[in-house]
């Protein structure tokens, strides 16, 4: 199924060719569960984020099992980093600057939250799959089996678009490509990660959960919105076998 946004042909060919096949089948040994929970229309895919491998493996899992592409929401500051920026532009991501995010003033002005909200809403209304890692960051190696606090933005995007949230549990990616340090250098206005790709006989599991719908009424009631957030958190924890 074609989506209404464009991904660079070279990037898609790389992921859909021998390189993607090697990463998916042999390097990561991916097994997919619950693909029937991915709707034919628009939806927010909300996985946990134990490793830098998560975006490409979730992309490959969804594409290979359903033929559909994911348009990711990504921190806008990554566009300023040479390695990440080129790939993210080719993937046509939706940049976001959450409160407290580091990055240049120029990139913050270019992508205010109002612009991000509009882009996400338009993508969902166009029946695209929008991928967002609601923890906001990937994990350090020793806490890959936990779940960081979930950002409430996904509730707003779901309610405003009338599209469901699909909770996803990603298991074991931190055992193949762990993040060993996350250094926030505020003085220099950038952040750096120390990672080390490893090859272990580990099977990656990606579990797609049942859709969760959020209404505008839920947003207007703190108790209801907190209950929805708790439902999402519980589902991701169960799917990812997390603490």
Entry summary:
The protein is an alpha/beta fold and 243 residues long. The protein has helices spanning 9-16, 18-27, 54-66, 82-90, 105-110, 113-125, 153-161, 173-176, 216-220, 222-240, and strands at 31-33, 43-47, 70-75, 94-96, 129-131, 165-171, 179-185, 190-195, 205-208.
CATH superfamily: Glycerol-3-phosphate (1)-acyltransferase
Strand segment count: 9
Number of domain modules:
1
Q: What would you say the CATH architecture is? A: 3-Layer(aba) Sandwich
Structure description:
- The structure is a single chain.
- By secondary structure, this protein is an alpha/beta fold.
- The N and C termini lie far apart (about 35 Å).
- The longest helix is centred in the last third of the chain and has 19 residues, at about 220-240.
- The mean pLDDT is about 85.
- It is about 40% helix and about 20% strand.
- Helix 6 (about 115-125) packs across helix 7.
- It has one domain: 3-Layer(aba) Sandwich (Glycerol-3-phosphate (1)-acyltransferase).
- The strands form 2 sheets. Strands 1-9-6-2-5-3-4 form a 7-stranded mixed beta sheet, sandwiched between helices. The chain has a two-stranded antiparallel sheet with strand order 7-8.
- It is globular and about 45 Å long.
- The protein contains 10 helices and 9 strands.
């Amino acid at each position: 199924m074609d989506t209404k946004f464009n991904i660079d042909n070279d990037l898609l060919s790389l992921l859909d060719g021998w390189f993607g096949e090697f990463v998916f089948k042999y390097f990561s040994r991916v097994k997919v569960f619950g693909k029937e929970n991915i709707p034919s229309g628009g939806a927010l895919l909300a996985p946990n984020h134990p490793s830098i491998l998560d975006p490409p493996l979730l992309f490959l899992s969804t594409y290979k099992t359903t033929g559909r592409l994911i348009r990711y929401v990504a921190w806008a500051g990554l566009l300023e980093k040479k390695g990440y920026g080129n790939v993210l532009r080719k993937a046509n991501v939706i940049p976001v600057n959450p409160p407290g995010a580091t990055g240049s003033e120029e990139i913050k002005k270019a992508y205010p939250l109002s612009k991000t909200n509009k882009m996400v809403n338009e993508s969902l209304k166009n029946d695209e799959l929008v991928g967002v890692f609601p923890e906001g960051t990937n994990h350090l190696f020793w806490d890959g089996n936990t779940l960081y606090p979930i950002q409430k933005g996904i509730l707003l995007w779901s309610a405003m678009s009338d599209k469901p949230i699909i909770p996803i549990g990603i298991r074991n990616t931190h055992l193949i490509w762990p993040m060993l340090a996350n250094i926030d250098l505020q003085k220099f206005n950038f952040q750096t990660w120390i990672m080390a790709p490893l090859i272990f006989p580990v099977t990656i599991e990606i579990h797609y959960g049942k859709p969760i719908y959020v209404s505008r009424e839920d947003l207007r009631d703190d108790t209801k919105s907190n209950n929805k957030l708790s439902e999402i958190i519980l589902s991701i924890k169960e799917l990812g076998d997390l603490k």
